[in-house]
Amino acid sequence: QVQLVESGGGLVQAGGSLRLSCVASGRTFSGYMMAWFRHTPGKEREFVANINYYRGTTNYADFVKGRFIISRDNAKNTIKLQMNSLKPEDTAVYYCAAGIPTPIYWGQGTQVTVSS
Question: What is the pLDDT of residues 57-82, one digit of tens each?
Answer without folding.
Answer: 999 999 999 999 999 998 899 999 99
